[in-house]
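Predict the structure of GDSL-type esterase/lipase family protein.
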Amino acid sequence: MAGPAPPRRLGWWSGWALTAGTMLLCLAVAEFVLRWHASPGLLWHFPNFVERDLRANDGERDQLRYDPVLGWDLQPEVSGLLAGRPITISADGMRSHSRFAPPGSGPPILALGDSYTEGYAVGDDETWPTHLERTTGRPVLSAGVRDYGIDQMVLKAERLVPLLKPATVVLAFIASDIDRTARAVRSGRHKPFFAATAEGLELRNVPVPVGPYTAPYQAVRRILGHSLLVHFAMNRLGAYEIWHGDSLETGENGDLLSCRLMERFAALMRRENTQALVVALPRYEDWAWPRDGERQRKRIAATLGCAGRAGLPILDTYDAFARAGVARDPEAFFVEWHFNERSNSLAARLIASGLATGSR
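Done. Here is the predicted structure for GDSL-type esterase/lipase family protein.
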């Protein structure tokens, strides 16, 4: 009597199809759970999350103007909202402040930096340059511009310092600004960049191309951009810029460029006989993702080291923020991933102290 027939083995194609089907089912379940957790309304509403993110700042674009050397700059004599908070830009293209208080007196301070210095998601009188003016009693010119890298800060210093003749320049940067020096496009806008040469630095992409940047693989974003799971995963993996397609790398080493840019900035300060302070500010990410934060801290230290060796006074504010308790409650110090007024006030006090002591 014949025994039972041996179990039929799946063919290669059948096994592949079963594996693929199982994976697709798992991904569908994960997509469902993530959408339900984010908002039940997303179960029947399928926006393109990439396009939504890129449209989020459309109302702020009128606050910027094209610049052939810097890429972009603040648009003079414009007012509106920046991340929901009122912003006023003066006739000289700087963020206004102290409108309801007497201005400072004495030798002016020029503040250069990115959105932390411009004051993203805080009002005109809540930025750290505003608090610095109150603390020191000296006029502070707020020349920070959102999305700037260290390269654009130094280029702007080379434009403004000979023109405005400030007594002191404060150049404030975050870890992200080191990476931005190795970008030819940032937030969909073309920018200048430097290339490292045997002699030092060579400025390229100037005049900066006019018009928006069109990223490759737009068809992929138009399709997969509707998946909240893909959107969430790409952002958590640190691939925000790649996924959104609004940045273009140059292939240069941002850490090397930032080091040499500190030497270039120091040379400018010597030519203009101007005091300076290079300040490193902490980011929300430094505490939200401590492992990456530690890596970024080393890069910050290296850039500050280059500034110090170039003869520039330096100030690292991380430890002071840590002592203030940021690790216990980052949300109490940040809004929209930027300093809130509490942090801006603390930063201003630290910078004022650094200016008084000539920090190293």
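The chain has two domains: 13-45, 52-357.
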